[in-house]
């Protein structure tokens, strides 16, 4: 029996090594995708990622799903900027984690998400609690609200980083500004890479930059772009990159919290 145990241990070690190897190959291939897939395709992948993740979401009980409520930084922002009344548009509202909390605080909420299953659950919670929130199935690239209607816009869950390409993010920001009242705030959550860049990462970026400029490549590829489990994200490399992206798009930065990965912007003049 001892011999059998030793053999099994050996086999298990070998499988771990093989598993690790294939995991690395998967990561590597995924990191090449942003250089060769067009932005529209990367965005489509994101939709499939959430469609898969939210399958059957509408059948869950609201209590099961909304347990986590607002995160600490979200609560801090509400208090710090005295966000107590007015209209707030929540982009990528999902099952309503933030939107429902905002509605409980008597804000007028418009929640936008592409995923119908997730929104069905959000609507059910709203109805059960007799809250005032409107949920719309739509893409946040075409926000279905009248111009200058919102006091605040909230894009949570690192979703600012889900927009592929610096120029596209800047064009999106300009469109976003049209939905805010003068002096209104947009609160955007973004992704940063907390691990130190390895030599392999540098080689992959060099290779990707070359691929991106081949015919059919994705010229909007930037270092920091990656795909994980079919979800595209752009990891901002440092504050300077993010600050210049926002200010070059005409936004004024009210607060940038790098550690908590959120930025609050406004527009002094309409774009
Ligand atoms: C990370 S989840 C965040 C969900 C929720 N806000 C939260 O924090 O629990 C991102 C959400 O954005 C939605 N989403 C992704 N791309 C979108 C798009 N282009 N337009 C609208 N919603 C989108 C997804 O369906 C998903 O519900």
Secondary structure elements and their pairing?
Elements: H1 2-36, H2 39-53, H3 62-66, H4 72-80, E1 87-91, H5 97-104, E2 108-113, H6 116-128, E3 133-137, E4 150-155, H7 166-177, E5 180-189, E6 191-192, H8 199-212, E7 225-228, E8 231-236, H9 239-248, E9 252-257, E10 262-266
Parallel strand pairs: 1-2, 1-4, 2-3, 4-5, 6-8
Antiparallel strand pairs: 5-10, 7-8, 9-10
Helix pairs in contact: 1-8
The structure holds S-adenosylmethionine.
Give a written overview of the molecule.
This protein is an alpha/beta fold. The chain has a single domain, classed as 3-Layer(aba) Sandwich (Rossmann fold), CATH 3.40.50. Helix content is 45%, strand content 20%. The protein has helices at 2-36, 39-53, 62-66, 72-80, 97-104, 116-128, 166-177, 199-212, 239-248, and strands at residues 87-91, 108-113, 133-137, 150-155, 180-189, 191-192, 225-228, 231-236, 252-257, 262-266. The strands form two sheets. The protein has a seven-stranded mixed β-sheet, with helices on both faces. It has a three-stranded mixed β-sheet with strand order 6-8-7. Strand 1 (87-91), helix 5 (97-104) and strand 2 form a beta-alpha-beta unit. Helix 1 packs parallel to helix 8 (199-212). The radius of gyration is 21 Å and the shape is globular. The chain starts with a helix and ends in a 5-residue tail after the last strand. The mean pLDDT is 92. The structure holds S-adenosylmethionine (SAM). The site of S-adenosylmethionine (SAM) has 18 residues, from helix 2, helix 5 and strand 2.
């Amino acid at each position: 029996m001892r011999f059998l145990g030793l053999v099994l241990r050996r086999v298990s070690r070998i499988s771990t090594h093989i598993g690790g190897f294939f995991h690395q190959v998967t990561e590597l291939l995924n990191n090449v995708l942003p250089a060769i897939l067009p932005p529209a395709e990367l965005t489509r992948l994101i939709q499939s990622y959430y469609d898969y993740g939210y399958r059957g979401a509408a059948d869950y009980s609201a209590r099961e799903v909304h347990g986590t409520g607002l995160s600490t930084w979200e609560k801090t922002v509400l208090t710090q900027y005295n966000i107590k009344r007015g209209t707030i548009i929540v982009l990528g509202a999902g099952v309503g984690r933030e939107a429902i909390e905002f509605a409980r605080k008597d804000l007028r909420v418009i929640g936008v998400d592409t995923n119908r299953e997730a929104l069905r659950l959000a609507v059910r919670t709203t109805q059960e609690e007799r809250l005032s929130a409107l949920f719309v199935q739509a893409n946040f690239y075409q926000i279905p609200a009248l111009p200058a209607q919102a006091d605040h816009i909230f894009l949570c869950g690192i979703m600012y980083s889900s927009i592929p390409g610096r120029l596209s993010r800047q064009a999106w920001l300009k469109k976003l500004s049209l939905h805010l009242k003068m002096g209104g705030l947009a609160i955007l959550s973004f992704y940063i890479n907390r691990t130190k860049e390895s030599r392999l990462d540098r080689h992959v970026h060099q290779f990707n930059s070359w691929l991106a400029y081949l015919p059919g490549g994705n010229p909007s590829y930037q270092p920091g772009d990656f795909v994980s489990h079919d979800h595209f994200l752009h990891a901002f490399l440092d504050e300077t990159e993010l600050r210049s992206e926002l200010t070059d798009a005409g936004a004024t930065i009210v607060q940038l919290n790098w550690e908590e990965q959120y930025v609050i912007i406004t527009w002094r003049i309409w774009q």
